[in-house]
Amino acid sequence: MNPPDIEAPHIDLPIDVNPPTKEEIRMAVRQIKNGKAAGPDNIPAEALKSDIEATTSTLYLLFKKIWEEEQVPMD
């Protein structure tokens, strides 16, 4: 028995192709579990959360640079 030949409808899903906003970054930092260092830099979550505005601004500038230059800075 052959399965029926059914075509799925084409659906365009909205995809945001902009760099993350400051609010998205702020929310992501707040969700990091305490007692964890999320990456090779070993910066503890508590350090990132201790000054959420400074962390958000710094990460926003970094992500914006990566987005515009399409490469991760080496420095």
Q: What report would you give on this structure?
A:
The chain has helices spanning 22-31, 45-50, 52-69. The protein has 75 residues and is mainly α. The radius of gyration is 19 Å and the shape is elongated.
User: Number of helix segments?
Assistant: 3
Helix content: 40-55%
| Overall body shape | elongated
How far is the N terminus from the C terminus? 61 Å
Which structural category fits the helices and strands? mainly alpha
Quantity of strands, as a count: 0
What is the helix/strand order? HHH
The residue-averaged pLDDT reads 88
Taken as a percent bin, the fraction of beta residues is: under 5%
The major β-sheet equals: none
Regions with little confidence, pLDDT below 50 for 5+ residues: none
What is the rounded Rg?
A: 19 Å
